[in-house]
């Protein structure tokens, strides 16, 4: 029948199939082979409009092979993660998120099967199942990065991860301690960890940065601690020191002179000997781990009577707030905290040590006026756990 042969045109053709639906055919611009469109159409007009759109895409260089996205999602995601340059701990976290939260939904299908509607449904189901919002955000960010690469590889035209606000979440306000409360926690914890608490609050160093400190990183004359590395722990328990994520992470931070005696006392009684000796170690003299510190932290927090929601990392937030109260500018705070961004790194290069010294001095004044007990632990107590 003539109408089933279809009407030929300069670009492609449309024809009616025995089912009554209309099919579009055109020359693949890459292979020159005749190929059908991805779907059929109810009317001849719809088919002709679709053929016009395909021709327009080819002319504008925006056409992509509809079969390109047929690659298996799990295989593509595995190769993508394998080829990324990541720190060991970051790789471990990404692999865990991919395995637990992304592959169960998308792994069996193709890359092209990941649509915005499916992404929206997947995200909603994770939240409904009780998966924490930070984890859901991380999973969404990881999926989006993967699909960005699929766009670059011309497997798909457009990234389906286009859900407004899905890449961030509102961080709940964390507790902030007073100076007196900081010292209450420090005086309630095992003596070997007293300085750990004080430096976390008054230098805003992270736990991993404190755990990686060596004796040579502490300058008693200059009243500074220098961050050169940070300790990380893998899920199998292995510890290793890694470089900061950016140049801003390598920094010297001044501590208040009111902490000098506490620092010197700690180095004398608790730090490992030698210039490369760890400043903070576990109860048996091994490397400090979150696991061998956690119980002491919980007990001290309870004994001090501070909020049960207080995490060790909240000492960093407390220190940032106190430094701000002491007059530190936003730029100085970013530098002091080692924020890893190009802007923070640029600021770091121009901040003077005198200004940082002034911030530490004002923190010291707050210690004196806030009820901080700067007296040293007795030798008897120092011989504790």
Order of helices and strands: HEEEEHHHHHHHHEEEEEHHHHHHH
Query: What global shape is seen?
Result: elongated
Number of domains: 3
CATH topology of the largest domain: hpI Integrase, Chain A
Measured on Cα atoms, how large is the radius of gyration?
A: 30 Å
Number of strands: 9
- CATH-defined architecture of the largest domain: Orthogonal Bundle
CATH superfamily of the largest domain: Intergrase catalytic core
pLDDT averaged over residues: 84
Question: In the CATH hierarchy, what is the class of the largest domain?
Answer: Mainly Alpha
Bin the strand percentage: 5-15%
The residue ranges in which pLDDT falls below 50 over 5 or more consecutive positions are: 1-8, 341-352
Helical coverage, percent range:
40-55%
- First-residue to last-residue Cα separation: 95 Å
Q: Strand order, biggest sheet?
A: 1-2-3-4
Largest sheet: 4 strands, antiparallel
Question: Which structural category fits the helices and strands?
Answer: alpha+beta
Count of helical stretches? 16
């Amino acid at each position: 029948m003539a109408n089933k042969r279809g009407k030929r045109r300069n670009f492609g053709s449309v024809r009616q199939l025995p089912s009554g639906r209309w099919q579009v055919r055109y020359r693949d611009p890459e292979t020159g082979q005749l190929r059908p469109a991805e779907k059929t159409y109810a009317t001849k007009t719809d088919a002709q409009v679709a053929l016009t759109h395909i021709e327009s895409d080819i002319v504008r260089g925006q056409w992509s092979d509809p079969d390109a996205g047929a690659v298996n999602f799990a295989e593509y995601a595995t190769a993508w993660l394998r080829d990324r340059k990541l720190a060991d701990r970051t790789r471990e976290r990404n692999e865990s998120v991919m395995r637990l939260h992304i592959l169960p939904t998308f792994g069996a299908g193709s890359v092209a099967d990941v649509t915005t509607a499916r992404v929206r449904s997947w995200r909603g189901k994770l939240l409904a199942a009780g998966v924490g919002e930070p984890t859901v955000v991380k999973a969404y960010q990881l999926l989006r990065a993967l699909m960005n690469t699929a766009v670059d590889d011309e497997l798909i035209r457009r990234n389906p991860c286009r859900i407004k606000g899905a890449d961030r979440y509102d961080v709940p306000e964390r507790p902030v301690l007073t100076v007196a409360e900081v010292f209450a926690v420090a005086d309630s914890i095992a003596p070997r960890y007293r300085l750990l608490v004080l430096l976390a609050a008054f230098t805003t160093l992270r736990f991993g940065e404190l755990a990686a400190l060596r004796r040579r990183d502490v300058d008693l004359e200059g009243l500074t601690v220098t961050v050169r590395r940070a300790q990380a722990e893998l899920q199998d328990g292995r510890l290793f020191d890694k470089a900061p994520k950016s140049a801003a992470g390598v920094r010297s931070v001044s501590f208040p002179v009111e902490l000098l005696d506490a620092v010197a006392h700690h180095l004398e009684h608790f730090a490992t000997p030698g210039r490369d000796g760890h400043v903070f170690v576990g109860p048996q003299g091994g490397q400090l781990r979150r696991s061998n510190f956690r119980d002491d932290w919980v007990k001290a927090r309870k004994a001090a009577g501070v909020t049960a929601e207080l995490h060790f990392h909240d000492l960093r937030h407390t220190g940032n707030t106190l430094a701000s109260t002491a007059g530190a500018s936003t730029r100085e705070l970013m530098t002091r905290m080692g924020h890893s961004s190009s802007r923070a790194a640029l600021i770091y290069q121009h901040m003077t040590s005198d200004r940082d010294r002034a911030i530490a001095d004002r923190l010291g004044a707050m210690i004196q006026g806030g009820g901080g007990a700067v007296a040293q632990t007795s030798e008897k107590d120092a011989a504790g756990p």
